[in-house]
């Protein structure tokens, strides 16, 4: 289980090694992704709160990166955080995500990226529920939901 101190250590020193890497040119990403997903995953945009696909969805399954298909979160770790975006308490694996300090918009946050393709997913905060105390606040456009038993 990842805690806030683990996330800060990753952001400060080095992220865990992913199982593989997906590297494409920006032109290839643009051709591969719909415009809304490209803006979020490749240009670090944020979708509007409460008006996104997975904000109020709690169906069983897993969430994968919309860019590369890497499995990121199990729906069992999703909870109603009243933030306007899908919120999770833990990733599927410690090496699924990369963590980066982000001081944009006059805020100090920790950005979360897919550790395989580098796609922007959202941010992580130290105000989640016990026992981990972390809240992954993500953009629906960066995710793809897979029903139980479905592959990536």
- Indicate the CATH architecture: Beta Complex
The general outline is globular
The mean pLDDT is 94
What's the CATH topology name?
Metal Binding Protein, Guanine Nucleotide Exchange Factor, Chain A
- Total helical elements: 3
The ordered H/E elements are HHHEEEEEEEEE
- Measured between the Cα atoms of the first and last residue, the distance is 23 Å
**Would you tell me the structural class of the helices and strands?**
alpha+beta
Q: What's the Cα radius of gyration?
A: 14 Å
Structural features, described:
The chain has 152 residues and is α+β, with helices and mostly antiparallel strands. The chain has a single domain (4-143), classed as Peptide methionine sulfoxide reductase (Metal Binding Protein, Guanine Nucleotide Exchange Factor, Chain A, Beta Complex). Helices cover 16% and strands 25% of the residues. It is built from three helices and nine strands. It has helices at 4-12, 26-32, 35-43, and strands spanning 62-65, 71-74, 78-79, 87-88, 97-102, 109-114, 120-125, 135-138, 143-146. The strands form two sheets. The chain has a six-stranded antiparallel beta sheet with strand order 3-4-8-7-6-5. Strands 2-1-9 form a three-stranded antiparallel beta sheet, with no helix packed on it. β6 (109-114) and β7 (120-125) form a beta hairpin. It is globular and about 40 Å long. The model has no long low-confidence stretch (mean pLDDT 94).
């Amino acid at each position: 289980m990842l805690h806030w101190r683990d996330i800060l250590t990753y952001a400060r020193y080095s992220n865990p090694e992913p199982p593989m890497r997906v590297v494409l040119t920006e032109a290839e990403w643009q051709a591969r992704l719909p415009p809304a997903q490209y803006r979020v995953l490749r240009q670090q945009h944020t979708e509007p709160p409460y008006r996104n696909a997975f904000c109020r969805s709690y169906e069983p399954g897993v969430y994968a990166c919309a860019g590369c298909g890497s499995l990121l979160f199990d729906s069992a770790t999703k909870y109603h955080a009243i933030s306007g975006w899908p919120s999770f308490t833990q990733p599927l694996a410690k090496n699924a995500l990369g963590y980066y300090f982000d001081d944009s918009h006059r805020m100090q946050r920790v950005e979360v990226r897919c550790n395989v393709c580098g796609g922007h997913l959202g941010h992580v905060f130290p105000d989640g529920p016990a026992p981990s105390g972390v809240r992954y606040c993500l953009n629906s456009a960066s995710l793809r939901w897979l029903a139980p038993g479905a592959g990536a």
